[in-house]
Amino acid sequence: MNTEKRSFIQTLGSFKNTFWIGSFMELMERWAWYGVFTLFALYLVGSRDSGGLGFNHIEKGNIMSDITGLLYLLPIFTGVIADKIGYKLSLIIAFVILIVGYYMMGQVDTYWSMYFVFLFVAIGAAMFKPVASAIVTKSTDKTNGTLGFGIFYMMVNIGGFIGPASSSYLRTTFGWKLIFIQAAIVITINLLVVIFFFKEPYREETEKESLSAAISNSLKKIWEAVKDTRLTVLLIIMIGFWTMFNQLFYTLPNFIEDWVDSSALSTSINNFWPGLGNLVSENGQVKPEWFTNIDALMIVFLQMFVSYFVIKMRHVSAMIRGFIIAAIGIGITFYTNNVMYTVLGTVIFAIGEMTTNPTFSSFIALISPKGKEALYQGTYFLPVAAGNFLTKLISGNLYQSWSDKLSLLQTEMTSRGIDMPEISENFTKNDYFALASEKLAMGKWEITQMLWDTYNPNRIWWVIVSIGIVTILALVIYDNVVIKPKEQKNAVS
């Protein structure tokens, strides 16, 4: 068949069973991951009498940033291991680790136990990540690869939406521990699929090379790529994007829970569609995770349309515009405590993300020397990892000092000379808020507005948006100094 004349349906039919199995496993793995991760910041700092762990934001930032950063570095090693022992065995090991890890996350309640259990989960996720991409690569060809990776990316975001949506229902209906059990069950389905339906695809035999030699060669290849100044500068610039992007999961849920009164929106949703209102609301407020989930929903429905317009732009121009849009969006969400601006800001940010992220991957392919495309693509995760490591400085230390509602209330009570008990096993965060409300003779939202007006917790937006502005300026300079001269040179030649 002439592949140029293939219809959309015929192209879909050209995919091998392995492709669909790999895409299904990606959807399920993302369901489990985002079903936990999107709500994780709320769980870690939530009051113990509400089922949370009662950690402070510095502890939250350390757990989320350190472990997620490592997750994106580990594929350097886990990808090599998968090539040595086979994809099927790698997937089985990954899923067993994830099942045990997710379940244990719901059982531990101390800082270090959660830190190491989440690290265990990250190891499992890192074993799965390179295998999933490799399965799609080996199950597609140049006639259907573009559509194949488009479907794969769509599966990521479908799972990224379903996971938080189902976890949101479970945690308010049955308690926090159910979201971790759900993740373990979802991964168990993946394990059964691998055992009974997955067939090992062809891969290069590397038995003659020891594992240590294979890992060493992998590191040498990464080093070979990053010696290209044009690539390395781009990767450093992209750290800013990922640091800004991560605020959506690390910081925004806490900011919404602390400061945004969404009661009017909750009432409107309940009046329009009571069933949906029951799902997204708790105690008269829209649950914070549903604002974050707007991002995934937007990508599922709009990515192809955004990509259609972006494809007509120069790659760097598209990335600059995407950065600008994303910075405006994330700035709006943190600048005000008006719920409609929270929604608007998240929508705008999603458009910026859809413009920037796929273009970044495509641009790496564009600047890759012929025959080194895969080598250069392997560097994609480096700024992602670095961005995660840096995120805790904002979502942890800075948020704790500038924007944590409890910390600011404690400061206010001290400044007024009002004695309050310390937070402990017997006196939770919720107890503190209730007693403070009684002593101040103010309701919850009166206290919230008083603290907002007095301490300006939204000033954290200056730091987040400044990261975006610096990234934009760096990319503009990079374009004018590095990319445009090379384009002009190639045009002349």
Could you walk me through the main structural features you see in this protein, from its secondary elements to its overall organization?
- The structure is a single chain.
- With 493 residues, the chain is an all-alpha fold.
- The protein has three domains: 14-208, MFS general substrate transporter like domains (Growth Hormone, Chain: A); 222-403 and 456-493, Up-down Bundle (Growth Hormone, Chain: A), CATH 1.20.1250; 406-455, no CATH class.
- The chain contains 22 helices and two strands.
- The chain has a two-stranded antiparallel ribbon with strand order 1-2.
- A hairpin with a 2-residue loop joins strand 1 and strand 2 (285-286).
- The longest helix is centred in the last third of the chain and has 33 residues, at 460-492.
